[in-house]
Amino acid sequence: MSEHDKKRAAYAAKRNIYTVEHPVSPQDHWTRTGHKGGVLWLTGLSGSGKSTLGLGLENALHGLGYQAYVLDGDNVRAGLNNDLGFSPEHRSENIRRISEVAALFAQSGTLVVTAFISPYQSDRDMAREIIGEGFHEVFVHASLETCEERDPKGLYKRARAGEIPEFTGISAPYEAPQKPELLVDTGTLAIDDGVHFLLDYVEDSFTLHSSLIRAA
Q: Is 118 a catalytic site residue?
């Protein structure tokens, strides 16, 4: 049992919380959908293309018959995590909550694509521990200069002007993954090429039914 599972069990015992035994196993869900559930954890600087890649991948997977869904920094912080700021402690709690939700989605047979800066390696390690073997870290790489040139939301400009404190890459650190399962270099790859690159990875890592594999 992992340290996370031990802490979860201790918390549950203290609060009189009991394990929910689902009659439908994760493997049963996989058999129905034709693919394993799991989490593609896209991490990278703001402007690196995480959300664009994630949404493009979700659309492509849906067209192929996969059960897939994107959890994105903006849609999660606007609802579930709207009580959190951007301090290291709040960033860590943001990732913990997302990881727990993503783990539940994955157990239901869904292929979850997350798009979060998740700047600290310790937080991504925590996500891996919570989600388990279905966790796949994907480093969406683009240089700070490239991301700042793109600046699709105008956030870098505001951060440089001091309007946004603790902004990753400017006034807060980003710890790049050292051993990700996959690296997508959006500094050199077009978005469509990046999506196809991710599709190849999904087919190799998650697919069970040949009917879900693209025709050559």
A: yes
